[in-house]
Design goal:
- The chain is α/β, with parallel strands linked by helices and about 240 residues long.
- The strands form 2 sheets. A 7-stranded mixed beta sheet has the order 1-8-7-2-5-3-4, with helices on both faces. A two-stranded parallel sheet has the order 6-9.
- β3, α3 and β4 form a beta-alpha-beta unit.
- α1 crosses α2, α4 runs parallel beside α5 and α5 packs across α7.
- The radius of gyration is 19 Å and the shape is globular.
- The mean pLDDT is about 85.
Length: about 240
């Protein structure tokens, strides 16, 4: 109930007025039935802009940290994300990927739209990074189409670390559905799921026009942080 109030009364109309999103390829979203919408992830704003312009409800897999914050702010954030159709997924531990796949298949099993960011995290520099194979496993297992999506301009309005987004027009593009029925029964074959994931990322790249990096975003970000020398503080005179 609150999802519809948030989308059609509170947040949705406000986002449309402020960011005046250009929508391209909306006809590629099926009117009914299960499907995966796989997009690039440039900004915290992505969580709200895409759902706001879709006619159907879409459920995203979101990191569990959004649901476990302390205090009143943490509870409000958790309530907001749940109301916006987000499902918490713990990304720590060796079983994190399997947990995300189980949750995603549950959504698809109900004939709903599942939103996922194959990169696994927000891009810290605006580039498109290598996709994780969970999206391929879900697409093959559930035998559903994958609609590639590109958010364009959201990195500029709210890059990582910026709390309040800039008011600037953005573009949201949806590509033609990708059919992976030829891979039926191959969800446990590494070569197959890698090929499917790369095809999805290539489609997103074609829509977004980003520079592509054939490495996982989290790995590159961690390496860059390690390369930054620690700050040196002047010695105090005695």
């Amino acid at each position: 109930m609150f999802y519809h109030v948030l989308k059609y009364v509170l947040l949705g109309p406000l986002l449309r007025v402020l960011f005046r999103p250009r929508i391209e390829g909306l006809e590629n979203i099926p009117e009914e039935g299960a499907a995966i919408v796989a997009g690039n992830h440039l900004s915290f704003s992505d969580h709200f802009l895409m759902p706001a312009i879709l006619k159907r409800r879409i459920t995203f897999l979101a990191k569990a940290e959004y649901f476990t914050g302390p205090g009143i702010k943490g509870r409000l954030t958790a309530f907001f994300f749940r109301s916006a159709g987000q499902i918490p997924v713990d990304r720590s531990g060796k079983d994190a990927g399997q947990a995300a796949i189980r949750e995603g298949l549950g959504v698809l099993g109900k004939g709903e739209l599942l939103g996922i960011y194959p990169e696994g995290t927000r891009s810290h520099d605006g580039r498109l990074y290598k996709g994780k194979v969970g999206v391929a496993v879900m697409a093959i297992t559930a035998q559903v189409p994958v609609i590639p999506c590109a958010m364009v301009g959201t990195f500029e309005i709210q890059p990582p670390g910026q709390v309040v987004p800039k008011i600037k027009r953005v573009t949201i593009r949806f590509g033609e559905p990708l059919d992976f029925s030829r891979y039926a029964g191959m969800a446990n074959q590494k070569a197959a799921i890698r090929a499917v994931t790369d095809e999805i990322m290539y489609a997103i790249l074609g829509l977004s026009g980003q520079e592509y990096v054939d490495e996982y975003a989290a790995k590159v970000k961690a390496a860059e942080q390690e390369a930054v020398p620690p700050k040196k503080f002047p010695k105090l005179r005695r």
